[in-house]
Structure formats: structure tokens, C-alpha cells
Amino acid sequence: MSTTHELHLSEAFVGAIPDDSCETSLMKQILTPAIIAIGLCFAATGVSAQTLETGVPGLVVKNLACIDLVGLHSPVTLNVVNRSNQPVTGTLFVDILDQENDPVDGFALGVRIDRNSGRLFKQLVEKCYGGKFRVEFKAD
């Protein structure tokens, strides 16, 4: 009888331990696709770590990045830095290029940057198209 009694205690004890394998499996089923979707939505498709010359001595574009968002317009961020001792005012033209270096999208920014300083700019575009860029500045 003691063997039967131990068996019943063992079964009762095992049944009292919560089996969270179903919860873990459900969490994996929900979280894994969500994490992948978020990663795909915010994948940076074009990031330029290099410094791009604008054609104006001392005026450069840095940290130019474009992030393709599925179903939304894509944000472009860039830093315009004036390394000269004179303020700069004008228009910065940013072209987004495809794989064959043809312009497929772009925008213009009115820029006024004090001497020896910089500014962060943000702009929305239709798509990043691989994330190649060309910049040009025209002074006022």
C-alpha cells in the first residue's frame, strides 16, 4: 500500500507543478514573427558613414541615412556641417540614386548654418532605393 500511496503523491505533486511549455510555445509563436516584422520595418537600407562633399569648401554632409518602412514613407536623416569661419545660407539638393546611379527620388533643403557648427535635418521620401546618395549645395 505504501507504494500505491507514494505513486498517488507523486502524481499529485507532478500535476501541481505548472507546465509552462504551452505558454512558452505560445509566446515564441507570437513574439518571433513580431520581432522579425519589427526588424524588417526598421532595417536601414542606406546608411552613409562617409562624409559627402557638397561642392562648397568646408560644408559637408555626414551620417546620411534612409530607412525603408514597409507601407510608409521612408525617413532620411543627415547632418550638415559647416567647418568654415563664415555662415552658409542656400539650398542643399539631395538625390537618391538607384543601383545604376540614376536619380530616382530626392529633395531640397533650405539651409542656414552658422560658422563652425552643424544641424540635423530629417525628410520623408517615397523609398530609399538602395540608399545611394548625391548631394549638391547652391549658395543664395
List its traits.
140 residues, alpha+beta, Immunoglobulin-like, 2 domains, 3-stranded antiparallel beta sheet, 2 helices, 8 strands, 26% helix, elongated
Offer a quick outline of the entry:
Helices cover 26% and strands 45% of the residues. By secondary structure, it is an alpha+beta fold.
Question: Care to describe what's here?
Answer:
The chain has 140 residues and is of the alpha+beta class. The chain is 26% helix and 45% strand. The chain has helices spanning 2-16, 21-41, and strands at 44-48, 52-53, 59-67, 74-82, 88-97, 103-113, 117-125, 132-139. Strands 1, 2, 3, 4 and 7 form a 5-stranded antiparallel sheet that branches. A 3-stranded antiparallel sheet has the order 6-5-8, with no helix packed on it. A hairpin with a 5-residue loop joins strand 5 (88-97) and strand 6. The radius of gyration is 28 Å and the shape is elongated. The N and C termini lie far apart (100 Å). Residues 1-15 and 35-45 have low confidence and may be disordered.
Strand content: over 45%
Coarse structural class: alpha+beta
CATH level 1 class label of the largest domain: Mainly Beta
One letter per element, helices H and strands E, the order comes to: HHEEEEEEEE
Largest sheet: 5 strands, antiparallel
Radius of gyration: 28 Å
Shape: elongated
Tally of DSSP β-strands? 8
Could you say what the CATH architecture of the largest domain is?
Sandwich
Query: What is the rounded distance between the termini?
Result: 100 Å
